[in-house]
Automatic annotation (TrEMBL):
It comes from the Eukaryota. It comes from Eptatretus burgeri. One of its GO terms (biological process) is morphogenesis of a branching epithelium. Residues 150-222, 257-343 form the BTB domain. This is BTB domain-containing protein. InterPro entries: BACK (IPR011705), BTB/POZ_dom (IPR000210), Btbd7 (IPR042345), SKP1/BTB/POZ_sf (IPR011333).
Length: 510
């Protein structure tokens, strides 16, 4: 390898790169000149006399459009020449540094760059790491194991298994007629009388099959009776996958609702009329949210002395804490594990962060394109998920926010995620984006909206993708803007103070 490299001309790679960049720059320059010549020919052509006034106007309009298009193309070519010249300057700097180096030194430098690139990838993986959460299947498997908030008891071979009617009806249609004839008592018993051989009487294997009904897949132990599991799967066929079955359950087609989420405008009591009521199933709420599970268990303990419990179970939520406009999106996620922000109803946003990242955000809002609105909804829904202890919904909102990340929205996301009620994981992703796109951010208005802490984080990172000269220019521009901003604020305060003093003097004179 060393002998082959020594026979090659010195700095051949850098020379080829610079030559190709020079050719590209030359082509771009010639293209701009040719387009400018065409533009001059079109402008001369507009002087040709036309008999009809309408044709003259149409020709003038067409020439104006063509000229504006050529001007936009000329600007793009100019920007491309500037970027190519910047790259050519960087290649020239490397060529001057490596001039006179031997092959072994260049190879050592290349290996060092490869090690730095590997460290950067490891740094990015560490920044993107976060705790694992339980998905829909894992939550319902836990519910089947604990039997929390159960409303029916299955009896199989003398053993009792607490279960939930809504889940059994959604996943096993053959049990729907038997479940519909049961009383409303939470301790109602459903006896499963099956004609089984005398050798098949393992009740522990039925618990495995019950978990299979809830979550769709289980780990079968070695001691489980496979013949019993095979027989039960034939007697009680499962209709669909868990996510599809629970989505049908959300529509109320396979089993009626037994609970209601009531969003009340006042916190005076549960008897007050609610501003919004959303029907749902208590088993789903208990499986997905520890907050709802504790509330339902408390209600069940309070209703133990009642022979016929009141249905549906009413869970009252204060709208000042949990806005009702997020209710449908919340329920849809609990049933399907899919975050749908379009289900959030329109309403005010009161998080107290900077909503508009730049003038482009304002223009997008005026044109009717929803840019930062979904971002604000994801932020509020993230707070609601933390309150309800739904970790997987928190991570879904964080993923949605990171997917919306752009140069214009970066200052708003950094400001929100850096606060105590924000998201540390989103803050790390925003800082990674800042370091990766620092060269573009340094030339955009978003630079002036960055806080001092965010700018210090970018400057302290070893992986900021910008040259020292670009970083210095960006810091100088940011500092000048901050100085002008303070001067404007001081001038505004002085004007307000003088206005107050003048008004006081006028009152005394009168």
């Amino acid at each position: 390898m060393g002998a082959t490299a020594s026979r090659a001309p010195p700095n051949s790679t850098e020379h080829d790169v610079l030559e190709s960049l020079g050719r590209r720059t030359y082509i771009g320059t010639m293209g701009a000149g040719e387009f400018s010549q065409e533009g001059r020919q079109l402008s001369l052509g507009s002087k040709t006399p036309v008999a009809q006034g309408g044709n003259r106007k149409r020709r003038a309009t067409a020439l104006t459009v063509a000229a504006s298009g050529l001007a936009a193309l000329r600007r793009r070519l100019t920007r491309r020449r500037r970027s190519l010249s910047r790259k050519s300057g960087q290649g020239r700097a490397f060529r001057e540094i490596l001039l006179g180096w031997d092959v072994h030194s260049v190879h050592a430098l290349l290996e060092e760059y490869r090690a730095i690139a590997a460290l950067k990838q490891l740094y990015i993986q560490v920044a993107r790491a976060r705790p694992s959460t339980c998905d829909l299947a894992a939550d319902f498997k836990e519910l089947a194991s604990s039997g929390s908030c159960s409303d029916v008891v299955l009896i199989f071979c003398g053993a009792r298994f607490p279960a939930h009617r809504a889940i059994l009806a959604a996943r096993c249609p053959r049990l729907q007629p038997q479940l519909s004839t049961l009383s409303l008592d939470h301790n109602a018993e459903l006896r499963l009388d099956l004609q089984l051989p005398d050798s098949i009487t393992d009740s522990a294997s039925f618990a495995v099959f019950l978990q299979h009904i809830y979550c769709g897949s289980v780990e079968v132990a070695v001691s489980a009776d496979t013949n019993l599991l095979r027989h039960l799967s034939k007697e009680f066929p499962i209709s669909s996958l868990p996510d599809t079955g629970y989505q049908v359950l959300l529509s109320g087609a396979c089993y009626p609702y037994d609970s209601v989420l009531a969003f009340s405008a006042s916190s005076e009591g549960a008897d007050m009329p609610a501003a919004l009521e959303l029907p749902c199933h208590g088993a789903v709420l208990a499986a997905r949210s520890p907050f709802f599970r504790a509330a339902l268990e408390r209600m069940l303990r309070a209703a133990q002395g009642v022979k016929v419990p009141t249905l549906p179970t009413r869970i009252v939520l204060d709208q000042t804490v949990l806005p009702g406009r997020y209710g449908r999106s919340l329920l849809h996620f609990l049933y399907t594990d899919c975050l749908e922000l379009h289900l959030v109803e329109a309403g005010p946003v009161g998080l107290g962060f900077d909503r508009l990242g730049s003038l482009r955000e304002v223009q997008a809002m005026v044109s009717g394109v929803s840019t930062c609105h979904n971002m604000e909804q994801a932020m509020e829904l993230c707070h609601i998920a933390r309150l309800l202890e739904i970790d997987i919904l928190v991570q879904a909102c964080e993923d949605e926010l990171v997917a919306m990340l752009s140069i214009e929205r970066l200052p708003s996301l950094l400001a929100w995620s850096g606060r105590g009620h924000g998201s540390e994981w989103v803050h790390r992703q925003a800082l990674l984006f800042l370091c990766e796109e620092f060269s573009s951010i340094a030339t955009s208005p978003a630079l002036f909206q960055l806080s001092q802490d965010a700018l210090l984080e970018a400057l302290g990172s070893e992986y900021t993708q910008a040259s020292e000269a670009d970083i210095l220019k960006a810091v100088v521009r940011w500092g000048e803007h901050q100085l002008l901003k303070r001067m404007d604020e001081r001038e505004t305060k002085c004007i307000e103070w003088h206005s107050t003093q003048y008004g006081t003097q006028e009152c005394k004179a009168s």
